[in-house]
Amino acid sequence: MKNEGLADRVIRVIVGLGILSLLFLLHGPAHWFGLIGLAPLITGLVGICPGYALLHIRTCPLQQK
């Protein structure tokens, strides 16, 4: 079940892409830190955050059963 709302997902995708851009902007061994951007990008695209699940946080509206 998804636990991220639309605004949360959009912000995660933007932040993830921004961090991933470090792969292209930085040179040397530090540029690999840009791979950290995969975490917010993937969770934003999928809509499920494992950290939110562990802490029982939901930023999306509850679905009707």
- Total count of domains: 1
The counted number of beta strands is: 0
Share of helix, binned: 40-55%
pLDDT < 50 runs, ≥5 residues: none
Radius of gyration: 14 Å
Order of helices and strands: HHHH
What is the fold's blueprint, element by element?
Layout: H1 6-20, H2 22-25, H3 38-46, H4 50-55
Helix pairs in contact: 1-3
Concise structural overview:
The chain has 65 residues and is mainly α.
Report on the structure:
The protein has about 60 residues and is mostly helical. The chain has one domain. It contains 4 helices and no strands. The longest helix is centred in the first third of the chain and has 15 residues, at about 5-20. The chain is elongated, with a radius of gyration of 14 Å. It starts with 5 loop residues before the first helix and ends in a 10-residue tail after the last helix. The model has no long low-confidence stretch (mean pLDDT about 90).
Features of this protein?
single chain, 65 residues, mainly alpha, 52% helix, 0% strand
